[in-house]
């Protein structure tokens, strides 16, 4: 029963990372008729509108004023930093730089989980990380000839990409603290309120023409926006936060290494790019590492906790 539950969580994380891997294709598609800020703001607004009636059905829950600071931190330091800085950073840096820096996401999630949640790295987790990094380096698509992390021309872009990674890690970790008191849907909605309040003036200031071009968007662009809203910012986040109520942030974060592998597979299926045996082998290593940390580790912990403690000898009378 426990193993089947962990297999379900692992499968759900696979679905999340498959959706997140498709984000790059969809964002590139919609940016044909809009800027990067609007491409993030508009579908997130649609996702917010979809969440409102669903959360209301859960019951009238009004967060106290002291809790709103947590949702503002989640929305601004988490989602806004993650979404805006990656779109700005990639434009100021190289694609290979972005691919390599993105590999730091599970590591930064583990670091934040240590400081914010008190999670610790076990031996199994270190082994899982080693397997995942070996696998993802094989299939991540980093162009080592193009890679340039030291050139000052790309410094600002590289810092923005790293900030975006930390924003995602912060959201993945800090949300777990609030999930003890609020449902995943409520956490997502209230953090999206903060995103909307912050990004609306930014979008109006930087890309006001995108609002005027709404009637001119092609059906293909509208389909891309709908996919981003429904799957990227709504469904995948609800699934991930649900799984996060049962797994450690470090365990869930390691599964982010599946994104490069799924990105390669999607590029092969959609764009007819090359898929080599080495990429498949790297993907297999990443899958093995996620199985190890999400199923094997939890199964071992459950078994050790279920072993009855040895009966203690009654204490002898004092002075005997």
What do these coordinates show?
- This protein is mostly helical and 320 residues long.
- The chain has one domain (2-206, 219-303).
- It is built from 14 helices and no strands.
- It has helices at residues 2-21, 23-30, 36-58, 65-92, 95-101, 105-117, 123-139, 155-178, 184-206, 209-212, 219-244, 249-254, 258-270, 277-306.
- α1 (2-21) packs antiparallel against α14 (277-306), α2 (23-30) packs antiparallel against α11 (219-244) and α3 runs antiparallel to α9 (184-206).
- The longest helix has 30 residues, at 277-306.
- The termini are far apart.
- The model is unreliable at 307-320 (pLDDT under 50).
Question: Can I get a quick summary?
Answer:
The chain is mostly helical and 320 residues long.
Blueprint of the fold:
Elements: H1 2-21, H2 23-30, H3 36-58, H4 65-92, H5 95-101, H6 105-117, H7 123-139, H8 155-178, H9 184-206, H10 209-212, H11 219-244, H12 249-254, H13 258-270, H14 277-306
Percent of residues in beta strands: under 5%
Distance between the termini: 50 Å
Topology as a string of helices (H) and strands (E):
HHHHHHHHHHHHHH
The count of DSSP E runs of length 2 or more, i.e. the number of strands, is 0
Number of domains: 1
Provide the helix percentage. over 70%
Give the tags.
14 helices, mainly alpha, 0% strand, 320 residues, disordered C terminus
């Amino acid at each position: 029963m426990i193993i089947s539950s962990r297999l379900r969580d692992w499968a759900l994380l696979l679905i999340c990372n498959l959706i997140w891997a498709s984000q790059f294709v969809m964002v590139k598609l919609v940016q044909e008729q809009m800027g990067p800020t609007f491409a993030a703001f508009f579908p997130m607004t649609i996702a917010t509108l979809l969440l409102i009636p669903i959360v209301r059905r859960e019951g009238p829950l009004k967060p106290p004023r002291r809790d709103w600071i947590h949702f503002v931190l989640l929305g601004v330091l988490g989602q806004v930093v993650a979404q805006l800085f990656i779109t700005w950073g990639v434009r100021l840096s190289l694609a290979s730089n972005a691919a390599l820096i993105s590999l730091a996401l599970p590591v930064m999630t583990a670091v934040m989980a240590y400081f914010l949640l008190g999670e610790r790295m076990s031996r199994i987790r270190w082994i899982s990380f080693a397997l995942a990094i070996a696998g993802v380096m094989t299939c991540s698509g980093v162009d080592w000839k193009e890679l340039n992390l030291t050139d000052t021309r790309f410094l600002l872009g590289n810092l923005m990409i790293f900030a975006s990674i930390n924003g995602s890690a912060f959201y993945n970790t800090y949300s777990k603290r609030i999930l003890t008191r609020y449902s995943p849907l409520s956490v997502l909605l209230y953090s999206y309120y903060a995103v909307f309040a912050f990004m609306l003036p930014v979008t109006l200031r930087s890309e006001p023409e995108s609002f005027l071009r709404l009637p001119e968007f092609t059906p293909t662009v509208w389909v891309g926006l709908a996919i981003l809203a429904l799957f990227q910012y709504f469904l995948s986040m609800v699934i991930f936060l649900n799984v996060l109520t049962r797994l450690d942030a470090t365990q869930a974060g390691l599964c982010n290494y599946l994104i490069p592998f799924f990105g390669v597979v999607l590029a092969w299926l959609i764009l007819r790019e090359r898929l080599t045996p080495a990429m498949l082998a790297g993907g297999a290593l990443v899958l093995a590492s996620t199985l190890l940390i999400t199923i094997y580790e939890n199964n071992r912990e459950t078994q050790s906790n279920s072993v009855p403690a040895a009966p203690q000898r009654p204490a002898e009378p004092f002075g005997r």
